[in-house]
Specification:
- By secondary structure, this protein is an alpha+beta fold.
- The protein has two helices and four strands.
- Strands 1-2-4-3 form a four-stranded antiparallel sheet.
- Strand 3 and strand 4 form a beta hairpin.
- Helix 1 packs across helix 2.
């Protein structure tokens, strides 16, 4: 898995860019990530997930690995 693309918009927001590139509905990915993080966020006009807080790409990668493993288990 390639590391996720994460940007910081300001000191209190993080943007996760690859939400629409996962071949899943962005809303589904967003719901999972927000539930795992326990924070609020939303999709912007470019289907990027904007969350409140500062997070590193490595942090998102761990959550995305859990997402992929759970989705894989549900599909197979």
């Amino acid at each position: 898995m390639r590391p996720p693309q994460v940007l910081r918009e300001d000191t209190k927001k993080t943007i996760f860019i690859r939400c629409s590139r996962m071949h899943r509905q962005p809303e589904h990915v967003m719901t999972f990530l927000l539930a795992e993080l326990g924070i609020s966020g939303s999709l912007d006009g470019q289907q990027r997930l904007v969350v409140k807080g500062r997070f590193t790409p490595k942090f998102f990668e761990g959550i995305l690995r859990r997402y992929v493993s759970k989705i894989h288990l549900c599909v197979t």
